[in-house]
């Protein structure tokens, strides 16, 4: 038992050394990939899948959901109520048969249940979760969601793509430096 505890302590100390030093942390972040750097996991999302993977997935926009429970009533193996936030969520993709799922989507009074591409699902599910926000003044922080999760997902994916391209350029040794424009050269102070 003591040897195993000692090994864990050594591993923890090594991890701490890597994460505390900026250059080692950068290498570590690059090794685990851009998605893990952004939100600590591979693209898997909140909901699980029943049966074979399909190209489309269900997503509930929690900002629009009014908590009526219609979807849960019609397809209780697919949808679940998030009591903490007062809105529905997809627990199991295709947990019910297609007819029950379609009835639940059609019965939503505010049309907050969307069919999305499977590849978009994990980012949408991550972004719709309330994120801690920085607090100023007396009231402190709190939690917030993006007002439009679909626009936020597009911006998030664009940012990930830019990070991946930048990392690819750095790995290939082709770090591009923008050339100085004539206006910049003129504005630069000259040293005597």
Structural account:
With 192 residues, the protein is an alpha+beta fold. Among the domains are: 1-32, no CATH class; 48-118, Alpha-Beta Plaits. 47% of the residues lie in helices and 14% in strands. It has helices at 2-20, 22-32, 34-39, 70-74, 98-107, 118-127, 149-171, 182-187; strands spanning 48-49, 56-60, 79-82, 87-90, 92-93, 113-117, 131-132, 143-144. The strands form four sheets. It has a two-stranded parallel ribbon with strand order 1-5. Strands 2-6 form a two-stranded antiparallel sheet.
What's the topology here?
Layout: H1 2-20, H2 22-32, H3 34-39, E1 48-49, E2 56-60, H4 70-74, E3 79-82, E4 87-90, E5 92-93, H5 98-107, E6 113-117, H6 118-127, E7 131-132, E8 143-144, H7 149-171, H8 182-187
Parallel strand pairs: 1-5
Antiparallel strand pairs: 2-6, 3-4, 7-8
Overall shape? extended
Any idea of the CATH topology of the domain at 48-118?
Answer: Alpha-Beta Plaits
| CA(first)-CA(last) distance | 69 Å
Number of strands: 8
| Strand order in space, largest sheet | 1-5
Output the structural class.
alpha+beta
| Helical percentage | 40-55%
> How many strands, which pairing sense, and closed or not: the largest β-sheet?
2 strands, parallel
Strand content is: 5-15%
CATH class category of the domain at 48-118: Alpha Beta
Can you give the mean pLDDT? 78
* Total count of helical runs of at least 4 residues: 8
Q: In the CATH hierarchy, what is the architecture of the domain at 48-118 at level 2?
A: 2-Layer Sandwich
The radius of gyration over CA amounts to 23 Å
């Amino acid at each position: 038992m003591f040897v195993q505890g000692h090994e864990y302590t050594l591993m923890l100390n090594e991890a701490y050394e890597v994460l505390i030093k900026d250059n080692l942390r950068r290498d570590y972040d690059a090794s685990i990939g851009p998605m893990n750097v952004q939100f600590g996991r591979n693209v898997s999302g909140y909901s699980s899948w029943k049966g074979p993977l399909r190209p489309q997935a269900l997503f509930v926009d929690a900002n629009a959901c009014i908590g009526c429970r219609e979807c849960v009533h019609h397809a209780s193996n697919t949808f679940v109520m998030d009591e903490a936030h007062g809105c529905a969520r997809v627990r199991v993709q295709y947990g019910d048969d297609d007819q029950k799922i379609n009835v639940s989507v059609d019965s939503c009074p505010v049309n907050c249940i969307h069919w999305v591409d499977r590849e978009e699902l994990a980012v949408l599910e991550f972004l719709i979760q309330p994120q801690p926000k920085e607090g100023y003044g007396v009231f402190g922080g709190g939690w917030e969601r993006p007002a439009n999760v679909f626009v936020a997902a597009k911006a998030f994916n664009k940012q990930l793509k830019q990070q991946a391209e930048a990392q690819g350029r750095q790995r290939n040794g082709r770090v591009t430096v923008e050339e100085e424009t004539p206006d910049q050269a003129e504005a630069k102070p000259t040293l005597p």
